[in-house]
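Supplementary Text 2. Reproducibility record for the structural model of the 476-residue chain.

All settings were left at their defaults, and a single model was retained for analysis rather than an ensemble. We include the record here because the model underlies the residue-level annotations in Supplementary Table 4.
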Amino acid sequence: MTSSDLIIFWHRRDLRLDDHYGLTQARSRSRKIVGVFCFDPRILSADDIAPARIQYLLGSLACLAQNYSIQGGNLLFFFADPCQLIPELSQKLSAKAIYWSEDVEPYARSRDKIVQDSLKEKGIEYVTHWDQLLHWPGQVLSQSHTPYTVFTPFWKNWNSLPKEEPLPSIENLEGLTIDELEQIAPIALPTAKDLGHCWDKELPLIPGEQAALEILEAFSQNHLENYGQSRNFPSIKGTSLLGPALKFGVIGLRRIWQTSQNISLYSRSDEARQSITTWQQELAWREFYQHCLYYFPALVNGPYRAEFQNFPWENKPEYFQAWCTGNTGYPIVDAAMRQLNETGWMHNRCRMIVASFLTKDLILNWQWGEKYFMQKLVDGDLSANNGGWQWSASSGMDPKPLRIFNPYTQAQRFDPEGDYIRRWVPELSSIDTANLLSGKISPLERMYCNYPEPIVDHNEQQKKFKILYQEQKQKT
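Retained model, structure tokens:
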């Protein structure tokens, strides 16, 4: 291969030029790299697509296209089945090789296998790399060479492994000629409306690679050393908000890790260093769930624990509707759900609260909540969302699975002034703080505020759930 031979890079969840392993390898072979993003009808027509996530994706693609152009290259868009598009495009452009980054999700793996087989049949070289993980499947295994199903030993092994240095941004590319572009007829970057979605509100973070790098810098300088304390309080800015950027690979993990290590190196207290370690553990949790999905793809269709295969969920639609709309009568739960509906994002502490409430208080199938989150979250990610919901439902990989969150205790601990609740449930703004947090709001006050009575009794429901749980365990 010469430096002018064409390489196609098929972008999916790696929408950046900085710290990009696959692009770096491709650039070492040729300047003429054409980026391609395919809007897959099968993904876009699924019933778990969030409009906010589509809007963030499109904004990030616009930034990536601009960055390609600045370096002299092209990012091209197509609306097609990638199993047909990628091989056909490779032939039309006489590409010498096709590069892409691996994925853990079952659909992506099956799709990629079809593309690989087609390229093999046509005699076209393809090269794949892992780039959405610091340590990919096969690198973090137990002493018996099996995948971990418990986080703590996974974390110890994962954390002990050396991390690669971040890679410099790709530069000095060569684009396609006008004749080549006319031959393949790419489309303009569509709008969310073009794709059948609409998001007309602000996103919780600005899309694109440069914005993600700036957010990382600001968070690491101003909040990272206090993360261990502040991350649990939804009314303050204590988290990085980088979830969407991680979902779409808008920022490189090696860059993130190096930044956290640099801050740790100059930290002056054990407490600050522990906060940094806690944040790094969240990166490891993300990778743990990706490893789990890779090795146990059946997780997308059901619970990990056998006793939950036929769990007797009550599944009352009116309960689910109240939960979705933030009208359960439990202020912290309703605040969190309204934040999700309004912004496309929810604080992680609140995600655990509302998930526990759906499964342990309302006794609704966790998969209902899992799907609703994916329909709303700007950072909705299959592996992380599935892992989090199964953890909350007690159906997943957890050595102490039976956890039940008391929504009143959670509010008292993590929203002690009621600021978060009042922000998202403004009709309760005049209620005394102690009563707001404890739920001791009189029927008269609820009527005056037009706020519903609790739809269930927490103490009664948790007793019921525990009985159902023990009965199921005895059957297996």
